[in-house]
């Protein structure tokens, strides 16, 4: 989400930053923003006047614009708000009434300079805004460790032969002869017929 910051207005706020962060300049403000929830978006810091020297060293994706000697930073910020093609995605940071009114008119999100600094401090004090660090060691129950070792060392059983992978028990045909039972009547009749034919010959 793009961020448009009234830089001098933010830097002139007092009593918000803790002592170890107080007195930051543009580069310090840029580093705070880089480590915050806005660190991955596009950021424009707008300042009054003209630069006294080069402002190299700002994080990637972060830019500084000076209003020049003939106009105020408010004019440049208002122009940026008017030129925005997606004002509802733009967050404007300033405590200036004129800028806040212009931003709200276009549907921008507005943060006062003190509220913005408070969020920067909150984000800086968090352990990390990235994914949690993976622990170096995980303590597992002893029985789980032993079971895992057994699974690793277990030798797989050989696969059965194709003939062995049959149905559990072959079905006997309905009229199959058995060793200890009488012959079927059809067999007896056929044998009798063969005998009679032999006698007639």
CATH class (first level) name of the domain at 3-125: Alpha Beta
Structural class: alpha/beta
> At CATH's second level, what is the architecture of the domain at 3-125?
3-Layer(aba) Sandwich
> Helicity, in percent?
25-40%
Tell me the β content.
5-15%
Mean pLDDT across the residues is: 79
Distance N to C terminus: 112 Å
Q: Classify the fold: give the CATH topology of the domain at 3-125.
A: Rossmann fold
Shape: elongated
Radius of gyration computed on alpha carbons: 43 Å
Q: How many strands appear in the DSSP assignment?
A: 5
For the biggest β-sheet, the strand order reads: 3-2-1-4-5
SSE topology string: EHHEEHEHEHHH
Instruction: Give a short account of the largest sheet.
Output: 5 strands, parallel
Spans of at least 5 consecutive residues whose pLDDT stays below 50 are 134-138
With helices defined by DSSP (H or I, 4 residues minimum), what is the helix count? Answer: 7
Structure notes:
- This protein is α/β, with parallel strands linked by helices.
- The chain has a domain of 123 residues: Rossmann fold (3-Layer(aba) Sandwich), CATH 3.40.50.
- The protein is 37% helix and 10% strand.
- It has seven helices and five strands, in the order E-H-H-E-E-H-E-H-E-H-H-H.
- It has a five-stranded parallel beta sheet with strand order 3-2-1-4-5.
- Helix 4 links the parallel strand 4 and strand 5.
- The protein is elongated, with a radius of gyration of 43 Å.
- About 2% of the residues have low confidence.
């Amino acid at each position: 989400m793009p961020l448009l910051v009234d830089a001098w207005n933010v830097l002139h706020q007092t009593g918000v930053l803790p002592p170890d962060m107080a007195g930051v300049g543009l580069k310090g403000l840029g580093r705070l923003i880089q480590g915050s929830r806005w660190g991955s978006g596009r950021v424009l810091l707008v300042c009054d006047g003209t630069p006294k020297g080069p402002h190299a060293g700002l994080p990637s994706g972060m830019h500084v614009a000076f209003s020049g000697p003939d106009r105020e930073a408010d004019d440049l910020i208002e122009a940026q708000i008017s030129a925005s093609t997606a004002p509802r995605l733009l967050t404007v940071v300033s405590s200036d009434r004129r800028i806040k009114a212009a931003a709200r008119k276009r549907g921008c999100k507005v943060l006062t300079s003190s509220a913005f600094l408070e969020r920067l401090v909150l984000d800086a004090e968090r352990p990390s805004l990235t994914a949690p660090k993976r622990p170096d060691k995980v303590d597992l129950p002893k029985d789980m460790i032993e079971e895992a070792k057994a699974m690793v060392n277990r030798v797989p059983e050989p696969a059965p032969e194709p003939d062995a992978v049959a149905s559990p028990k072959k079905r006997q045909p309905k009229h199959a002869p058995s060793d200890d039972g009488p012959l079927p009547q059809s067999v007896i009749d056929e044998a009798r017929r063969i005998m009679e034919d032999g006698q007639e010959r």
